[in-house]
Amino acid sequence: MLLTSGSPTVQQGIVAIGHCEYECFNFLVLLSCKRLHVGNCLRCELRTGNGAYDDAAPGQIPEIRIEACKPYEMGFGIGRHFEAMIRSRVANDPHLSSTLLPYAKTKQGQRLVQLLSENNRERYPDYWDELRGLADGSGVPFLSIILINFRKEIGPFLPDIRARRIVEEPDQCSDILLCSQELAVMVHNEDGDGSLENHVYFVHATLENGTTFFAYTCAGELPSCCFGFNSHGVAFSLDSVPPAPEEVEPGGIGRNFVSRDLLQSTDINDALQRTRVASLSAGHCYNIMDVNVRKIFNVETASRGRSSVREITGEPFYHANMYQHLQAVKQITHESSVHRVKRVSELSMSTLEEMLKVLGDDSNREFPVYMQGPQQYTLCTAIFDMNQRSLIVLTGNPSSRCVLRNISMIPLEV
Q1: Could you tell me where the beta strands, DSSP code E, fall in 25-134?
Q2: Which InterPro entries match (predicted)?
Q3: Beta bridge partners of 190
Q4: Residue 39's closest CA among 128, 121, 133?
Q5: Closest CA to 171 of 61, 282, 322, 56
Q6: Contacts of 68 (CB under 8 A, 6+ apart)
Q7: Which residue, 2, 194, 286, 350, could crosslink 299 as a Cys pair with Cβ 3.0–4.6 Å?
Q8: Cα–Cα nearest to 152, from 128, 171, 172
Q9: Which one of 31, 58, 81 terminates a domain?
Q10: To the nearest whole number, what is the mean pLDDT of the chain?
């Protein structure tokens, strides 16, 4: 079905961007009508963390729900609704205007961005279309959206060493994993720089193939470079790892595209296979759970097809932002990870309560597990609980157990 283009027209208080037999309405009116169609069979609802159809209140995370949409349309819908947030994220990103955009205008930068674009578009055309829709919907230049999504793949090639070190600084996430008969959980601190505060949202999408996913998403990026799960019972969280610049392949596959692909996984084996990308540019750490077979794995990856898979059993496993079991990969050692790993090794993690206390630990004021600035902040904490088949998102220090969202994973109910 073709959507006719043209300038917007207003009909009965609704802004239309074209017409087809489903009536194609613009996202500007969602707060009043709560559902719409753009192109082929797109339905959308907007919610905040407490279920209200309104802008998110302080402490809440806004949410968009989209059903049966094509990739470009999904990206466009997300971009249009969160236009102000995405524009604000782009304007406040500490590296985009000062470093990444100027670099992208150089001959070296143009070649690298072109190579990244060509390779990722070829491997993941649908996700590329989502990014195009996100840019068009938000009105943000496509180049800015691309650079935010490829910042970790571009950072090692910046000519200014000081700028390179800043851009390469990992997002300081932490995970505790355990899979015993009594307790099977992934508990994740989502950490990021100050520019991400109030620049995140939940995406709850049902794809054309029937798969539904729920993803915590940074404004302007693909779902999800943070954590999420789908209706097949596959869940994941992510930890940055810092390969040395010589370990990074120019123009390879970006980590944001791999994690977006994980949301399509049908089971644990499919998810593990999707992390094994021979043409990966840099590296990443994936914590993956399958509630149907009661298994958890930690996966560390690097360029040139290197990866290591560790199955999690009855011994608690803590992962910060450093390679811990993938051998022969040169990495940048960050003091924060070294200090966090040392501190966590001194604490017990045998119960969920103990895990939350560990992830809320701030006894080391310079390098805490739970971060409160000035550069890095713990934005929220996610608990994937296999026994309960649920995702619980906490706000504030996780030891206080202040619940922001409680979502059933199977069946997926939000």
Answers
A1: 43-47, 63-69
A2: C45_proenzyme-like, Peptidase_C45, Peptidase_C45_hydrolase
A3: 380
A4: 133
A5: 322
A6: 40, 41, 42, 43, 206, 207, 208
A7: 286
A8: 171
A9: 81
A10: 85
Q: What is the mean pLDDT of residues 188-215?
A: 92
- Token pair, residue 229, equals 């799960």
Read off the pLDDT of residues 230-259 as tens digits, 9 standing for 90 and up: 999 999 999 999 899 899 999 999 999 999
- Taking 50 as the threshold, does the pLDDT of residue 41 lie above it? no
Q: Which amino acid is at 371?
A: M
Collapsed DSSP state (helix, strand, coil) of residue 271? helix
Tell me which amino acid residue 48 is: T
Last residue of a domain, one of 81, 102, 137: 81
CA distance 149 to 8: 30
CA separation for the pair 116, 182 (Å, rounded): 45
The domain of 217 spans 168-408
Helix, strand, or coil here: 233?
A: coil
- 52: pLDDT strictly greater than 60: no
Copy the structure tokens of residue 303: 């360029």
Joined together, the tokens standing for residue 37 give: 């169609």
Q: Which two tokens stand for residue 175?
A: 């995970």
> What pLDDT score was predicted for residue 309?
97
